[in-house]
Design a protein that fits this description.
The structure holds two protein chains of two kinds. Chain A is mainly alpha-helical. Chain A contains 13 helices and two strands. In chain A, helix 5 runs parallel beside helix 13 and helix 8 packs antiparallel against helix 13. By secondary structure, chain B is α+β, with helices and mostly antiparallel strands.
């Protein structure tokens, strides 16, 4: 039966949701710490090392500081929207995690529990929809601030995300043509067969475009124009303070983590362990252990991407606005289109047994 | 215009080639540089845990010296106060009474001895002026304080720990480089 929703299923999903939300929050928290550490070691500094061993309690200290700061809502702001902005940013950031397959499945209490909150058959479209919603948090927040710099930041964010979403979508279409499915779970399963069946091998150009667009969607350097500190005094979050500011900053890190996860699922085999036959491994050590290794491998790959995000941030300066638009519209979109057409032609030829 | 030095370079303004316009090679080169910096030695010293060695001529906080039996050297002659260009030193002399021979080396001693560390310029002239080897500048420096009066160091701040009862503290305060005559 299709809609047999029992209590165990609800409990199972609720636990999964709590775990995913909590762990992405913790990962985002430590991503802020990692960001500072990576920045430090790339600049021959030491970075935070005073709070706890190796400074590991630093994110807690930062969070505590944000909590205790005075919460200022500007008089002339639109109050409801001002509060809604960061909430929406946080909400949309957290929502992406629902369709990402964190692992294959675990076997507990006589049930096979899939390590994915929702195996939506249009998973990747859902991700796209939610990511596009993400800009609303920024836009609403910046508009409600009633501040010119904030508004500029919001405008930049909106136009940047819209521009880059196009190229991202087209790059993804080429990928979806090769996979033939929109479900993230199936895309991951397809990549498990051989080490060379990872989509990065099939779609290197698509991956590059997707990666660049992911940087732009997360408002990370070199595309951090919406919050350009030295031009816009922080851009869309100029007027924000205390935990509302924290939400904006935090949402960026969650976005980063989740877009890393999406890239891992789409292009790097998701939870696939490279050079290992997962099915035979599951037989020898049990499903649950394999699921654990799968999740660890997935998180490791995502962490590599997080490192890439930080590495790029501390290497490349920010684009100028016209350069940003040129790159988006004149380079990435044509490139994505060519990639799509080439992929289509390739698939057609393949189906036609290489006859014209 | 004639260039003043031979370091001036002509700026190239020819349009970028396709490879250059692709940005990616340059970006990868930049990223290799930042990655390389991750393995470089960091010059920072973890300060409170690790300290930089002082130079052999470093002049730090003053210390009032004792002889090897633990008696105070200072006789409150006032030469250090006279020598002090910043007028940071004040003292009051007192006569040693019977039974205090173990405390003070000579018949006269400093009942009060104060150095204002805000005025002191750590020139070391007091050290040079002292005929009794009673004052010298150590290898530490004055820590921060919340009040001005906290910087006026009295005898209990300045006096070196007793060499017999607290040999370790004494050795530490004495430091490695000062040779006491």
């Amino acid at each position: 039966m299709l809609l047999s929703i029992g209590l165990p299923l609800i409990i199972e999903k609720l636990v999964l949701i709590v775990v995913v939300v909590m762990s992405s929050l913790v990962i985002a928290m430590y991503a802020t710490f990692a960001e500072r550490k990576v920045a430090a070691i790339m600049q021959d500094r030491r970075g935070p090392n005073r709070a706890g061993p190796f400074g590991l309690l630093q994110p807690l200290a930062d969070g505590l500081k944000l909590f205790f700061k005075e919460e200022i809502i500007p008089n002339l702001s639109s109050k409801l929207l001002f509060i809604l902005g960061p909430c929406l940013a946080m909400l949309t950031a957290m929502m992406t995690g629902a369709v990402i397959p964190w692992g294959d499945k675990v076997h507990f209490f006589g049930r096979d529990i899939s390590l994915q909150i929702a195996d939506v058959n249009i998973g990747i479209l859902y991700v796209f929809g939610v990511v596009s919603l993400g800009v609303y948090g920024i836009m609403i927040g910046s508009w409600a601030s009633n501040n010119k710099f904030s508004l500029m930041g919001g405008l930049r964010a909106a136009s940047q995300i819209i521009s880059y979403e196009l190229a991202m979508g087209i790059a993804l279409i080429a990928l979806l043509m090769t996979t033939g499915t929109l479900s993230l779970k199936e895309i991951v399963q397809q990549q498990q067969e051989h080490w060379y069946s990872w989509n990065i091998i099939k779609q290197p150009l698509g991956f590059l475009i997707f990666l660049i667009c992911a940087f732009a969607e997360c408002n990370r350097t070199p595309f951090d124009l919406p919050e350009a500190e030295n031009e816009l005094i922080g851009g869309y979050h100029t007027e924000y303070s205390s935990m509302k500011l924290g939400f904006f900053l935090f949402a960026e890190y969650i976005n980063m983590f989740l877009s890393s996860s999406v890239m891992v699922s789409l292009f790097f085999g998701g939870y696939d362990i490279p050079f290992v036959n997962d099915a035979s491994l599951a037989e020898s050590i049990g499903t649950n252990w394999v699921a654990l290794i799968h999740t660890a491998v997935f998180l490791f790959k995502a962490a590599c991407f997080l490192f890439l995000f930080m590495w790029v941030r501390w290497t490349i300066p920010r684009f100028r606005y016209d350069q940003l638009m040129n790159l988006g519209w004149k380079i990435l979109i044509p490139l994505a289109l060519i990639n799509m057409l080439a992929t289509g032609a390739f698939i057609l030829l393949q189906q036609n047994n290489w006859h014209f | 215009m004639q260039a003043l030095t031979n370091r001036a370079q002509q700026v190239e303004r020819k349009p970028m080639s396709l490879l250059e316009r692709a940005y990616l090679p340059a970006i990868f080169r930049g990223m290799a540089i930042t990655f390389g910096h991750m393995f470089k030695k960091r010059p920072t010293i973890n300060y409170p845990e690790v300290t930089r060695p002082f130079s052999p001529v470093f002049r730090g906080l003053h210390i009032l010296n004792r002889d090897e039996e633990g008696r105070e050297n200072c006789t409150a002659c006032g030469l250090c106060a006279v020598a002090c260009p910043a007028e940071a030193i004040t003292m009051e002399a007192a006569e040693r009474s019977a039974g205090e021979e173990k405390l003070y080396r000579e018949e006269k001693y400093a009942a009060k001895y104060e150095i204002n560390m805000l005025r002191c310029i750590f020139c070391g002239l007091c050290e040079e002026a002292c005929p009794k080897d009673a004052i010298y500048l150590s290898e530490t420096f004055a820590p921060a304080n919340f009040q001005r009066k906290g910087f006026i160091y009295g005898k209990d701040d300045l006096l070196i720990p007793h060499p017999i009862t607290e040999p370790e503290a004494h050795a530490k305060a004495k430091g490695g480089r000062v040779s006491l005559k």
